[in-house]
Amino acid sequence: MTTVSERRETEFEDNDQKPVGFGRMLRKEDARLLRGRGRFVDDVQLPGMLHLAILRSPFAHASIVSIDTSAAEASPGVKAVVTGETLKGLGLAWMPTLSNDVQAVLATDKVRFQGQEVAFVVAEDRYQARDALELIDVEYDVLEPVIDVRKALEPDAPVIRTDLDGKTNNHVFDWETGDEEETNRVFAEADVIVKEDIVYPRVHPAPMETCGSVADFDPVEGKLRLWSTTQAPHAHRTLYAIVAGLPEHKIQVIAPDIGGGFGNKVPIYPGYVHSIVGSIVTGKPVKWMEDRSENLISTGFARDYIMRAEIAATRAGKILAIRTNVLADHGAFNGTAAPVKYPAGFFGVFTGSYDLKAAHCKMTAVYTNKAPGGVAYACSFRITEAVYLVERIVDALSYELRMDPAELRLKNFIQPEQFPYTTKTGWVYDSGDYEPTMRLAMEMAGYEDLRKEQALKRAKGELMGIGIAFFTEAVGAGPRKNMDILGLGMADGCELRVHPTGKAVVRLSVKTQGQGHETTFAQIIAEELGIPPADIDVVHGDTDNTPFGLGTYGSRSTPVSGAAAALVARKVRDKAKLIASAMLEVSVADLDWVKGVFQVKGDPGKSVTIQDIAMRAHGAGDLPDGMEGGLEAQICYNPSNLTYPHGAYICVVDIDPGTAEVKVRRFIAVDDCGTRINPMIIEGQVHGGLTDGVGMALMEMISFDEDGNCLGASLMDYLIPTALEVPDWETGFTVTPSPHHPIGAKGIGESATVGSPPAIVNAVVDALKPFGVRHADMPLTPSRVWDAMRGQATPPI
Amino acid sequence: MQVTVTVNGVEYTKEIEGRLLLVHFLRDVLGLTGTHWGCDTSNCGTCVVWMDGEPVKSCTVLAAMAGGREVRTVEGLANGAELDPIQEGFRQCHGLQCGFCTPGMLMTCRHLLDKNPDPTEGEIREAISGQICRCTGYSSIVRSVRWAAVHEAASK
User: Fold this and answer.
1) Which of A233, A345, A755, B134 would suit a FRET pair with B115, their CA atoms being 20 to 30 Å apart?
2) Chain B closest CA to A402's CA: distance in Å?
3) Domain ranges, residue B138
4) Which among A677, A690, A680 has a CA at the least distance from the CA of A647?
């Protein structure tokens, strides 16, 4: 392991001309995006294209008595008006979710959340489609909604899912991990037990580009082309085949440029299916593009875990065990995007970075009259919740023990020699060296001086807080023996072709939404094959032209697809070596590989480049016996384990005692994601995630009133940080490679979103210590902090 | 109704409805799809263009109101193959990821540098505070603008 602090001076260093491999490289994507020449779904214009708009439920829970579409059908430009009854006739009124539940494509019997899809209109332009929505007359019989998740399982609670056979309550699933008996035994013998009720409120990923699609069904070919905002184009194609009954080879899903995904664009939404139905019904291409309010009110939310956390320790600060009880709000349909055998995602990593004697979690998930979702917003399948839980409760313990929170963490870290380390909930951490990462963050922050400054400020009545979070992530789902989505194993394909002149094209099954894959995957191939990244095109997002795989989410691109890219390049290199040996008339054992060149051992003047070899592979002249022409390979990579990046975050906040406004003054983030492919891109990923953290910790929340009205359904109320709410980020890194990954690289994209909220909340709670505050729930808006300062902190609803 | 608008130096005369928003006029009628539409409450700023030299949120302007005016969009920033310094700054300092907020950000930042060639970090943050970016966390955007300021000053 090496420890290097990142230097700001290198910021402007231009390594763009670097011929090969890892390091800072400017992005290939930028040329088009800077000129307004990106191609996003709403930029797609096809001849004769129509526009679709969706009528949504104004109520959270109501029976549909009748729908009159006659006036809408007569409205100018309208080509079709479709209701749930129409879809029922086609067998399309319901569709499977990623959690093996079903979701209404259009409501038939009743509506189950405000904003649910009730009917849609297809018209000549988007304005006419919206006009016609106003003319659809729906008669509802309003039912009592279930909004407070804590009351959803009460015996007299209204049953939401009357569509499910024999369903008499709102229970979705129970889930458990760890050893309950052993955990209770350790708790019984502990000196100190600290307990907190911790809420991770419902938030929303809110990518700047909303969800949308253009469906073009060609009745002559019998082929459906669908441009859509999807992070998982291949998985979507398979699901459409199941839903629509079209064969997979007659469905082409094209994910063009995507204006941010953040997990919002993993599920299949009714709107996508509507555009497909609209195109089949009208015989024309049909575009659906939701607006911001629709995105916030109806697409996949994130979090919404109500957690009771308990930690047991010795008086000297040795953490012994953690136990937790979770109530999970899944909304009206269980649409959680997670591997099938993991209904609570990877929440099992709630034991964090610490060496415990025991751990146990018991979880119950319930239906409420809210939009479906849960797994989104860079959560790595619920690790945001797991890390928030452990880092909050460890901080509460440090408060109880009157011990510095950094010292308490350092005392309990899993040690480097313990890796691979099996946690008490069965997760096998691949590698880690936590203390140097923590020490580097403390050094960058000037931790001791910050504590002195804080003491001086406290003496003057000023509110300053220092928050720490140390996290272990689990990313790169995953081994196909136990991870699949709807029966599709979570492996990823990669195809590499080297053209005769030595230029190359690499085709990925994953799909970037801004994370820079077109640049970094070219760098991986370059590193392995010695072809300059500028000579390598990265193709992704088109299911007709890329190998099958499960897409980009859970920070899985580098761990899974990145591994596939390295291995496919090695496969090409192996063949190139055989050709080189024939060209140089020496045995394979006599060849050395020096980035892009095979040379004869002891005689480096005798050599052939990968470009020479590519021409020979495609050209005239003999190839070794039995060898096919061409220079290409494909692979499907099945990871043996996840990768477990880690990080140490320190946040400094100042709170105005007069207004209770929290200002994040500094934020130091040290991340370790193993081998770093492109430090510039990693830094950008971290900056974005830290901003998510400020949003969640201080501003963002999707809440509901007692009637089930969504109170966060526009950017007027759902507050996202601007440049004024965030500081200039300070980042650093250590390097602890993943031993099982071909290039030692771990995922990183979601680390900062996972790690930053607890650091910020810990800082705010630290600042509020003079008021005796031990916990306060997000979002820590001025009014909520004001209440906490007066001992009236309330959980968010 | 008929409207004549000059966009990036080219005059367009089109038959439009009075209610058509400028953002949709640019995108759907003229096919200039660099300008984006990210919200419905005038908060996000992905639709920022210039009208008579001033940045406006084109989702909050009727196309009819642009009649007789000069509009400049992201497509009008580069000089042929040569990027405007602000575009080059965003590239050099990794001021964009998904690229969705970028056209609006570029138009605002270009305007800032025209009015204030040497802005401080605080002035840059203030200038872009009407715009949301979900990817970058803003630090790299601030640096991109500084890069452009430094390089423009050096080339004068």
Assistant:
1) B134
2) 35
3) 85-154
4) A690
